[in-house]
Amino acid sequence: xxxxxxxxxxFNQFVFSQDFKxxxxxxxxxxxxxxxxxxxxxxxxxxxxxxxxxxxGLYLYDLKRKKTVRISDKQGAGYRPVFSExxxxxxxxxxxxxxxxxxxxxxxxxxxxxxxxxxxxxxRNVSVxxxxxxxxxxxxxxxxxxxxxxxxIWVIIDKQKIILYNKGVKKIISPNGEGNYIWVSLSxxxxxxxxxxxxxxxxxxDLKGNIISDLGYLNAPVWYNNNWIVGMKDYDDSYKFTASDxxxxxxxxxxxxQLTATEDIxxxxxxxxxxxxxxxxxxxxxxxxxxxIKN
Length: 295
Description:
Blueprint: H1 2-19, E1 21-28, E2 37-41, E3 47-51, E4 58-62, E5 67-72, E6 82-83, E7 89-98, E8 101-110, E9 115-123, E10 130-132, E11 135-140, E12 144-147, E13 153-158, E14 161-166, E15 169-173, E16 181-186, E17 192-197, E18 201-206, E19 211-216, E20 219-223, E21 228-236, E22 241-250, E23 256-258, E24 267-273, E25 278-283, E26 288-294
Antiparallel strand pairs: 1-26, 2-3, 3-4, 4-5, 6-7, 7-8, 8-9, 10-11, 11-12, 13-14, 14-15, 16-17, 17-18, 18-19, 20-21, 21-22, 22-23, 24-25, 25-26
């Protein structure tokens, strides 16, 4: 009976490991540019967006031509920029200060023409732009929805709360009750909400705010696809990161796969591209890496 149990456990581990597997890992060397952070892959997998420390500036690196274009040098430009679904444009928010008041603008960058167009000029409390079903969405002042067109489902964090916009209707979602919600995102099929509840862990809820699964300790979580979430398990000494590795967790919380296990690299803030079967991330020293995934 004991032998059968051992064989069963081994078989389960083998099958489990095949669910999500790293088949290649490489460092992206961006010549002439040191300490690069928060990479994001274009829809066709040919280009990488990245920024500098504190999200200052926004840059586009062409993987084939090995050339970098500076899109913006403004504060906040590197915080969660998004590609259009066809990959032809990039939408981003820039910040500046008038005294103690933070003023934000939203712009689009045309990759082919290398031109920038201002969309929202110098306003207060502007959320980062999002793309849903090919349409651009963001908020101004925390209430008014600004969009180019369409009537979609999307989520943001506003004043530490999850705000769901469902076909023009605004709703506050608090699956875990009162507290600080961060790192919120909608699943690719727009049926589930991924978020971290500070001090407790990372969870998935439905659109009504009912908790579906508990993913445990997993920071900076992002959807790989509808079935897998990728995040980091990081540790610090209150001043700096002391260790971190990337993990993939199934959306039901039942399976966990460790994606990195290095002693000399602190892996942080993953960004996923299921279409290209790749995961990007940066190290604490500002190097960008790419994982090729089989699942």
